[in-house]
Automatic annotation (TrEMBL):
Its EC number is 2.7.11.1. It is a single-pass type I membrane protein. The chain crosses the membrane at residues 627-649. It catalyses: L-seryl-[protein] + ATP = O-phospho-L-seryl-[protein] + ADP + H(+); L-threonyl-[protein] + ATP = O-phospho-L-threonyl-[protein] + ADP + H(+). GO terms for molecular function: ATP binding; protein serine/threonine kinase activity. InterPro entries: Leu-rich_rpt (IPR001611), LRR_dom_sf (IPR032675), LRR_Rcpt-Like_S/T_Kinase (IPR051824), Malectin_dom (IPR021720). It is an enzyme of class 2 (transferase). It comes from the Eukaryota. Pfam families: LRR_1, Malectin. This is non-specific serine/threonine protein kinase. Gene3D superfamilies: Galactose-binding lectin, Ribonuclease Inhibitor. PANTHER family: LEUCINE-RICH REPEAT-CONTAINING PROTEIN DDB_G0281931-RELATED, PROTEIN KINASE DOMAIN-CONTAINING PROTEIN. It is found in: Membrane.
Length: 661
């Protein structure tokens, strides 16, 4: 049987064509819709590309309110690099930094904030809790403002790696939840008013490489948990009130490169485990309390560049291995009890620039290599017991030999000065740091000779000036030794306070040729550098000690507190006894106070003028001269009168013959 193929009718063909047409139209419409959606999405992405995420824009508005910042331009995108968001640096405002840094490399071109610098702006609000709403923020720097309060608990949930809130007026204890920012590598809270103990939770910051807690009011012992910070490279604990010894667990910080503990409150001795920190290139320890100790073993630290062990009650001889530290630039062993002589061979100290052996008990001859080096090198050997030398030509501006051979004997003559006085002195008046000036009937001698790190150059017979120390961490400047007033002075006798003498460590005024007896001493002070306004310029604390005749007369002295403000005068009066024709006034920085406000390097003693007047009246030389002249005239006349009277009485002048009848 043959099957014939069935051919669709024309009606069926029309129906099939219509169906295909409908399918094509639907497919085309769907494709157009998809294309339209893709275009709209592309347009939306294009609109967002290079712009900050909206939630972070809102967070910035909150942060501005919390810190008190009012100059951000909210009409432009924060990632646009517009000047209110990224301000160019200026030499006129070196502390100022205003910068919001964005990262626009995220998928879709959306930007996120990764760094924020708000430095030197006097922001007077509080620490912004809304930074936790910036999930990509890694670096927050609020250095040098006027922020108050404490660290917000919200910060514990941040991902910060670098945090600086130094030079503000933050108070309270260091919060334990700070230890939950596990990503933190750098922490700086110095120059605030934090108090209490260091929380052991900081030991959880195992990624921490740099921590600075200096210039606060921290107390107690360091917690053992800090031994966990094995990645630590830099630690600064200066100017606090810690107790106990420097902990032995510092041995755990094998990668430590810099260690600074100046006047931290710790007691000696320095732990022997410090010898395990062979990576140290900078070690600064000063003003340890308690009993003394032998010099620690620092021989493994071959890369040592800056070494300070000042006022640590160290005894024993000078370590010979120090002469092999070829990279050593600064060596400060001042105010200890080191004995013995100095090595004669320092050929390996090819990098040495400054050396301080002030106030030790070193003996023997001063090595020739010290005296023969040129003035580029600065050495201080003052107040020791070296073999007495040397001619006046030995006294150089960069070699301080003041009382370098005195051995504690006040009767010995001072180096580079004659051992006699041309005349007796009953008063001394000095305009410290300034030119000669006259106040009433008193002439204040000029004291405007530029200072220096190791300077003693006797300029006059009656008084001399010895300065010791340099400002660490900055380049040397003439402003390190003479201060100039920063504002108009309105006190009486302002000529005495327009300038002042400064020192980063120790400053001595030595007066001689005084007649023995009691003297009234007046020390004039006025703080003309630091400010007390509502600004980070007012957050500095200048603290130092004052000695007269080697006795402490002012301990941890603060000029601003004593005078009740800046640019105000405080005069300290003291009665001193002179028994060896010499009077000595010494000002000393013992590591307390701040070193970074109003700028880095502002610290150390400051004095404006000195008055020294005897309590007893000096002899009236004019009256004495008149009496001598009168006596020289009257005595011969009297003798002539006696002689004539005797001749008359004997009759040689006719008197007796006329009386006989």
């Amino acid at each position: 049987m043959v099957v014939k193929e069935r051919i669709p009718s024309s009606l069926q063909r029309k129906k099939m064509a219509a169906a295909v047409s409908d399918i094509l139209r639907m497919t085309f419409s769907l494709l157009m819709l998809m294309l339209l959606m893709l275009c709209m999405k592309a347009i939306k992405l294009e609109a967002q590309s290079g712009l900050l995420a909206r939630d972070e824009v809102d967070a910035l508005l909150e942060i501005a309110t919390q810190v008190g910042k009012k100059d951000w331009n909210n009409n432009v995108d924060p990632c646009s690099n517009e000047t209110s968001w990224v301000t160019p640096t200026s030499s006129q405002r070196p502390m100022f930094d205003n910068k919001v840094v964005c990262d626009c490399s995220f998928p879709g071109g959306v930007c996120h904030i990764v760094s924020m610098f708000l430095k030197g702006q006097d922001l007077a609000g509080s620490l912004p809790k809304s930074i936790v709403k910036l999930p990509y923020l890694k670096n927050l720097d609020l250095w040098a403002n006027y922020l108050r309060g404490n660290i917000p608990p919200e910060w514990a949930n941040s991902k910060l790696e670098i945090l600086s809130i130094a030079v503000n007026r933050l108070t309270g204890s260091i919060p334990s939840y700070l230890g939950r920012i596990s990503t933190l590598k750098y922490l700086n809270i110095q120059n605030n008013m934090f108090s209490g103990t260091v929380p052991p939770e900081l030991g959880n910051l195992v990624n921490l490489e740099n921590i600075t807690l200096s210039a606060n009011n921290l107390t107690g012992e360091l917690p053992l948990a800090l031994a966990n910070l094995t990645k630590l490279k830099e630690l600064r604990l200066s100017s606090n009130n810690f107790v106990g010894r420097i902990p032995d667990f510092i041995r755990s910080w094998k990668q430590l490169d810099k260690l600074e503990i100046q006047a931290g409150g710790f007691s000696g001795p320095i732990p022997s485990s410090i010898s395990l920190l062979s990576a140290l290139t900078e070690l600064r320890i000063s003003n340890l309390l308690g009993d003394g100790s032998k010099f620690p073993n620092l021989e493994p630290m071959e890369g040592m560049t800056y070494l300070m062990l000042s006022n640590c009650n160290l005894s024993g001889s000078f370590p010979r291995y120090l002469t092999g530290m070829t990279r050593l630039k600064v060596l400060d062993l001042s105010f200890n009890r080191l004995t013995g002589d100095l090595p004669t061979n320092y050929d390996s100290l090819i990098s040495l620039e400054k050396m301080y052996f002030t106030r030790n008990m070193l003996t023997g001859p001063i090595p020739n290599w010290i005296e023969s080096r040129n003035t580029r090198y600065e050495f201080d050997l003052s107040y020791n017991s070296f073999t007495e030398s040397h001619s006046a030509t030995t006294c150089k501006e960069t070699l301080n030999l003041f009382k370098s051979s005195w051995g504690g004997n006040y009767l010995k003559p001072v180096e580079c000065l004659p051992d006699y006085c041309s005349k007796d002195q009953y008063s001394v008046h000095i305009n410290c740091g300034g030119p000669q000036t006259t106040i009433g009937n008193t002439i204040y001698e000029a004291d405007d000779e530029p200072g220096g790190a190791t300077k003693y150059v006797p300029k006059g017979e009656v008084w001399q000036l010895s300065t010791t120390g340099h400002v660490w961490d900055i380049r040397p400047s003439a402003d390190d030794y003479i201060a100039q007033n920063k504002s108009i002075l309105r006190m009486n006798n302002s000529e005495l306070y327009t300038n002042a003498r400064l020192t980063p460590l120790s400053l001595t005024y030595h007066m001689r040729c005084l007649v023995n007896g009691k003297y009234n001493v007046k020390l004039h002070f006025a703080e003309i550098v630091m400010r007390d306004n509502r600004s980070f310029y007012g957050l500095g604390r200048r603290i130092f000690d004052v000695y007269i005749q080697d006795k402490v007369v002012l301990k941890e002295f603060n000029i601003v507190k004593a005078a009740q403000g800046v640019d105000k005068v405080y005069i300290h009066k003291y009665t001193a006894l002179v028994t060896d024709r010499e009077l000595e006034i010494r000002l000393h920085w013992a590591g307390k106070g701040t070193t970074t406000s109003p700028k880095i390097g502002i610290y150390g003693p400051l004095i404006s003028a000195i008055d020294v007047e005897s309590e007893f009246k000096p002899p009236n030389k004019g009256k004495r001269k008149r009496l001598i002249v009168a006596g020289a005239v009257v005595l011969p006349l009297f003798l002539i009168f006696i002689l004539l009277s005797a001749l008359w009485w004997k009759g040689y002048l006719g008197g007796r013959k006329s009386r006989d009848p």
